[in-house]
Queue: 4 jobs
Job 1
Amino acid sequence: MINYIWFFMILAGVITAASKGEIHLVTEGVLKGSEQAVLVAAGLIGVVSFWSGVMQIAQDAGLMRALARLMGPLARRLYPEVPPDHPAMGSLLVAMSANLLGLGNACTPLGLKAMGQLQELNRDKETASDAMCTFMAVTSSSLTVIPTTIIALRLTHGSLNPTDIIGPIAAATCCSTVITIVLDSLLRRLTHRRRLP
Amino acid sequence: MTLAIHALSRWAIPLMLLGITAWGLSNKVPIYERFVEGAKDGWQTAVRLLPYLVGMLVAIQVFQHTGALQHLIRLLAPLTGKIGFPPEVLPLVLVRPISGSGSLALLAQVFESYGPDSLVGRLAAVIMGSTETSLYVLTVYAGSVGLRRTRHTLATALLTDLAAALVSLYVVLRFFA
């Protein structure tokens, strides 16, 4: 599926640029995209290093195991293949909490830490495990309860009550997270029988 | 309530940093040495990530910079009107999964043209808040551990984004109409 979406974006771009007689836009897009990728990756080096270091301390101090035990039945239901007292379970909890609190640039590093530990448990290193699929789906469905950026933006645009969307956003976020968990468990069965590329 | 929430999100990281180091020290962990050991992963993660990011961001830029995205929005606009979904918010729904900064700019544009307290403005805000930059999350998360196949996850994420837009419409109508 990713192959088709990738090709669709390139094809649509080339056709649009050609029909406008401005084919150079494609080349410009390529340069912009590659530059942006380096900036994003470089921007992550520092924060990912920092949070990996902090989480290493947490793990050595037994904090992750304690957290994992705290997560209890809900986490075991969501990630049945992760051993309940494995540090990965603690990392998953930390990453999901950071998302819930809207901790901005801490979310990605903590999520990547959890992915790294799930990869240690993964048998086929090139294919996502069930736990990874669930974690990626839940993260990409948005867990944020406090939409600080949106509230700030509404305020600057003269909203009379900028925080009145907190309730609706919380309701919509909960719904979409439930939907993603259901979709993930339904679609998972399809890709188990017949592993799609 | 909101004040407490804001305080919590401002204090969370400093308290976490202090709490973890203090807990480590009281458990006789050589915290600085272990921190440095763990931090070594950062460089590797970023390097492993780069090819995935280049591939995805180049395609997204080609798609956006050439104006192909605008074309797609114009093609789809009449369809959304039929199901009662405001076409003014459609650009946001389509850009949201592929670009965080792009969708934020579109949200600001909706606020600018229709006002943050209008139905359209509120719908845009709720969609923005209940979705993520899915394609970016998948690229970065899968790339960081070198996965080649993410199985059904892309389908799950994109279907969820679609569902979230419809749920947002329902929620906004229930709350504000």
Job 2
Amino acid sequence: MPVSESMKGHSGGRFTVVGVLGVAAVSSALLIGLPGLDALTVALTGFGLIAIVVLAGLAFGSRAAAQSEAPSSFEVAEPSVGRVAGDATMQTAEELREQLNRARDELQQVQHMMVDAVGSLARSFEDIADQARSQAQATADGSPGQLSYQQFAEEISGILRTLVDSIVNGGQRSNDMIERMDTMRGQIADVNRILIEIEAIASQTNLLALNAAIEAARAGDAGRGFAVVADEVRALSSRTQTFSSEIRQRSSEIEQAVGRAMQSTSEMAERDRTLALDSNAHLDSMLAKMSALEQQRSLDEALEAERIQSQVARTVDAAAVAMQFQDIANQLLTHVHKRVAAGQQAAGLLDQLGRELAAAVADDSAESRDRLNRTVSQLSAALAQARAQTQNCPVASQTASMATGSVDLF
Amino acid sequence: MSKTILTVDDSVSIRQMVSFTLKGAGYNVVQAADGEEGLAVAKANSIGLVITDQNMPKMDGLSLVRALRALPAYTRTPILLLTTESSDQMKAQGKAAGATGWLVKPFDPTKLLEVVRRCIG
């Protein structure tokens, strides 16, 4: 404290100085009452008061004095120096008042700016947070892409199944065809049996014709006509034989063709059957793999959605906490306002003190001294009042960060 | 099903953050800028929970708590103080006035929701 530095040995006479005590009261009251947050006020008040104290010390050469012993008299040595000190005090008070006025205006400016800025910031924040929340919700509910993927897999699987089924059906039809061709072969064999019968008839007819010819020759001229008929019958039998063998040959060719067709069809049916079985197995394993992949994917997606959702929630919470800085800072600034007002009041009284100090030093009348004493006690009272008014800051001094506050339930 | 919560604070940003947090959890929220307005809103509506600041113009939070407790409709309604004031002395005054709980600003949205759920489900 500058006030405690005594200025003994100064050329002036010894004074017990009421004014210095008053100044000491001003500076100690204001400086002690100010927490570190109000650096501005500290600087302003400190600057003014230190100047006053030094000037007062120079003017009077004080003793280190306790506040309790309030001396009541002083002697005049150098009125001009006293006047200088008084004037300097007034000037300092004036400057202090001016600085505090500006500080008050600037504080108000900051408060208004903060209200405006944080208002729109909070609105934007709400919009963004709402969007983020609904987006995270949509991801968690499942995207439309996932549905179409599922549909795609189902459709592909359906198409492939139809193809495999049609192959299986084709095989079935081939088997039917083979059966029918087999029946055809049996019918060809029947035709062949009929041919044998026809050939037997032809052979018998030939033999009968031969016998008839012999009998006709034995009958001589009388049987000549009959011999001609017998020859014709033999010729017919021979033609029957020829037709029969031609039919047999065609029938054999048909039988071979049907046999080849049966062979090919059977091979084709076997190939189709194998293909169908392979395809079915392949399709089953493919669908199983796809389904496993899909399950994994939707699991991953669900986890990711959950992660995003909790991250969004955390971020939103953190921003909602930070957004409250305006209210807390505003309450602190309002409190700084009070301190500035106290400083302004003190500056006014200092100004008065300076005037009266100068007057008292000039005339050293009892009247002036009384006035000065009254102002000093007024000053002490005002300072005590200011201190009491600014003592309870609505924001705890340890609140320097935006860590969230405590919760008490009664 | 969702009850109506009244938030009383002279700071717009605090009202916004309280509303945002509670609306996000599905509660109805009405606002008032000071104790007098809060009291009027509480009289005109059926409020399930009140969250009020302490330092406000016209009527402060503790006076609002006392005024609400004097109303038959609000003898048992949960009332939470949400304020920068954190001294034990202030908390004791809050308890004596009939407040249900004391929350020091800034509030953590998750914790606020927990407290609200504990008070009104």
Job 3
Amino acid sequence: MQARSIDPPALNPDEAAGAASLAIHTQDLAKRYGKTVALAGLTMSVRRAEVFGFLGPNGAGKTTAVKLLVGLALPTAGQGWVLGAPVGDLKTRRRLGYLPELFRYQGWMSAREVLELHCKLAQIPRPDWKKEIDAALELVGLSDRAGDRVDGFSKGMQQRLGLGVALLGRPDLVLLDEPTSALDPVGRHDVREVIRALKGRGTAVFLNSHLLTEVEQICDRIAVVDHGRVIATGTMAEILGKDGAVRIRATGLATTGRAALRAYGSFDDEGEWLTFRGLSQDRVPDLVGEIVRQGGRVYAVEPRHETLEDRFLELLKENG
Amino acid sequence: MNRVLTIARLTVLEASRRKLLLALALLTLAVIVLTSWGFSRLPTMKDVTPAQVRLAASQLTILVAFMFSGVLALGSTLVAAPAIASDIESGIALAILPRPIRRSQVLMGKWLGLAVLVVLSPMTGGVIALVLFFVAWIGGIALAIGQVFGNDTIINIGVGSRLLIPTDGLWHGAIFYLEPSDILAAARVAGRARAGNPFFADQPLAFKYILWVIAWLVAVLGLANWSFARRDL
């Protein structure tokens, strides 16, 4: 299982050194199941100690990408490196933490036993087990349920346990596939805190999610995928664009007046409310002046930052 | 090897936690008590000759051996793969396989664990391999029927199934050694008519057949490894 059926690295020495210093690096990584293309060709980089959000609608290939990165599935084309080693490398897996999307633990074990099993599998030195397990239980809020059988756990508690398992042994990279899907708002808040703590201790986090607000709150950089391809990648500011939107409430604008406002870019016309997108903040006073010149009476000017959700939907539409 | 043992231990632990081992131990105890009682009753029956007692005892021994047969450990080779398939389906494997462990180690550990269970409790073996065994058994009967009627097609089907799933062949080999020699001699005189009895064998195991069984074991495990290593989860 150590030798993966991917092409030998075709990077030049500089690129290879770059790949080694990254938490994740992929080049045209692709996966087909028969004729179905699950991942068309993923090219991306995740730096060490950053929180990276991987966004996309259902069926975009997010889970497939994670499975390729942790070696659960074999790529059909392209290359990928995790912590500087080719994907699936056995030794590197010691430094990985992974929370699968749809998973279950042995229901007949207690939470502590599940964690012990994973300590053993992750080859953590035995003297450290207790410390590691207690820390993980504490972090995910399961300390008082450590001795209970897992099959008595709610879905949310199982997800917390899964997160605890992924954190064992202080991995350098943690891949979380929809970590909050079964959690209540308190649980989601807790997970965000855990992710922030991970980042604080230098762990890179790859967060697969379709919960945009969550990603917006904690990710340093994101990639948006659709139909198995990355359609946008960058920091939150880069994705959202520096120029926000501005919403203006004005009355008394005639059709010709509205037409004149096109000079400030396209806008959504909702009667009294006009929403301009991609307008530089410097031009807002000019815009208000123009509205007044056109005989409009301005009641409100609200600068509005575009939300990730708006941008996400826009990106999907542009690339649809 | 360490990781193989981890998985093997997990498999045995699961059986014991789920009270499977306890149930099997109780059933095994019941079988032992009942058969011992049955054997003790044999000589006390009226109008039976010592030869008849021997015949009955040998048939009973074979029956009990059927349930206690170590041969059935073989069944665990075929069962290890479905056991892993159920782990994959339930999502347990998703958490284990990304750890630094080879898939072959998971498979071998599962097989080793099941083999230990079979050895620990013959009843498990009975449960695990019964279906397999019956498939082969029907093949074995087909072979015998073919021999009785001299039908080559039926003989070929029987031999084929005996090669594909070797439990029946081993079973017949094992019961050969449990039969009293005078009954064997009498059966040989009776000729083909005796051959249809699945609780009877008139020949010991051929050395070549034992080799085939070993090759079969290696091949089945190898095949399971090969396909599991390539499987996308």
Job 4
Amino acid sequence: MSVFVITYFGLLIATSCAAAYWNQRGPFLTLFSLTLVSFVLGIVGGAGALRFVAIAAGMIAFAAGISYAFREFLVLITSHNLSKEIKTAPLTASFGMFVIFTYAVAGIFAPWIAPYGESEVISSAFAPADENMLLGADQLGRDMFSRIIYGARNTVGLALLATVAAFLMGAFAGLLAATKGGWFDQVLGRIADIIMSIPSLIFALLMLSIFGPQVIVIIVAVAIIYAPRVFRLTRAVAGNVVVMDYIEAAKLRGEKTWYLIRREILPNSTAPLIAEFGLEFCFVFLLVAGLSFLGLGVQPPTADWGSMVRENATLISFGEITPLIPAAAIALLTVAVNFVVDWMLFRSSGLKEQ
Amino acid sequence: MGDILSLVLKRLGYGLITLLVISVIIFFMVELLPGDIAQAVLGQGATEENLAALREQMGLNDPAPVRYFEWLLGAIQGDFGASIISGERVSSVIGERFMNTLFLAAYAAVIAVPFAITLGIIVALLRNTLFDRVANVLTLTSISSPEFFLGYILILYFSVKWGMFPAIASLSQDMTIMELLERTFLPALTLVLVVTAHMMRMTRAAIINLLASPYIEMARLKGTPPWKVIVRHALPNAWAPIINVVALNLAYLITGVVLVEVVFVYPGIGQALVDAVSKRDFPIVQACCLIFAGTFILLNLAADVGAILTNPRLRHPK
């Protein structure tokens, strides 16, 4: 019995007793079942398994702490109305906001944060980490850490641009279809059906094989692939607004289509559209990352998370986890955006589940 | 019965038309190339004679619509022309690979479908408990991770650290079925993780949606035991959404398979597609795209037809 194991169980039992004493039913059940599971785990897996549980619990506690602090920070610095909204955010959502904030800082200030340039060769290939290089070098001897920071700018930036393009195209077509109706609506609907019946990755690969892997091709391809989703949602949301009396009144006043879209329909359909933007970003981000992983996205020497995983994959067979860090960065951002979107959908739908 | 039949036929016809339109898109997209295929193959420095000879050999001198119908007729009979890089028949390049991909997808589906649906129903019944919350976070993480991330994590632990399964899924003719299952276990597991997460969430949403309907509440209020509420009242109406969920996710497997095959160097059609795209071997790209899109449409079609056939309202018309 090492000191670690004794402290581990001592802490668990003490906290569960405390929870039981102050009648905290949920925390008590969680802590005490964790204690019971730990007994079994300790016997089967030894101190190693317990250490793993302790590290995982510590990380969750750390994330929860930082999300709590970040939420309070946001409540303090924002205006009165906004801070009321943020106060209701669950911890997962504020964790998501914190991650998005961190990525934004890393992306915007990349040249100042990263110690080296993104294509600067500073040591031998696959050199291990030392005091100069936090995470070691990649397959050409470039600093891995700097490339990850620059990747936040390149990969996320590209995905964001592509999402905006898809969103503008889809939302504009959707609003137009809802206001105009008739054959225009029908034709756009059929086109959207056709595009959606081709798997997105396959369609992107087809376009890239023809026009070559360039950034502009990726943006246009993604915009065409994902615009139909936005189109359908916008059309459905705007379709509900279009039948309202005040739209009829505006039409009778003699307002033009553009005025109707801008002043009457858009302000009444923003909430679901913002949530859709988040979801759309996740899809686009994963698609773009997948394309770069296949070597068909952003071309070297630009630092990009997807291609970094591919280029350094050989390290994995030596038990190194550094090649997985860019992949984890992709996953973390997607999870974060999903958390925030979940909260927004929950708010705008007024609690659908129950 | 007549209603169902006409609905199914209508849906089948619609699927066929979609497939035709997509074949048109896939074929004519290549026509958008600056110059033509011959130019793309030989590069900018090609002489006029060489270009003319290649055009003659590939039959590029016919007008595009004629070539399209020739291509389509060939494709229906399984002949997609010849590769422009190696000159091999496309069907011989991708034929065996297609079977491998189908095997991998089926392997993943056989594990994932029962697993995901059972878990999805359990999570729906236990909604808003701790178990549900944990499952929610886990499935969300799995959906948000790129396939290659999950694949490499599995390689790192199951193959490099613990040495349980091979990291590279190379296949050979004389393998027993057990060897085959062991070799392809990690790629299949990666697909299972992604698809299970999607399927669980969708099943959960469908079941919760159903349990909120008034007739379920009515059944509960008149004192029907809980298991009977599920089996007699909820399940008959749940088949349609569940079939839908399964088919949609099998369709999702199709895109997932491309990335997973590249991670595990699995000799499947997805890898062939990626290779062909980087070499700009258009006949192979077209053939692979048509096969993928066709399977995708077929699965969506199956979902719709399944939903029509299991709809109690259509089976017992008034």
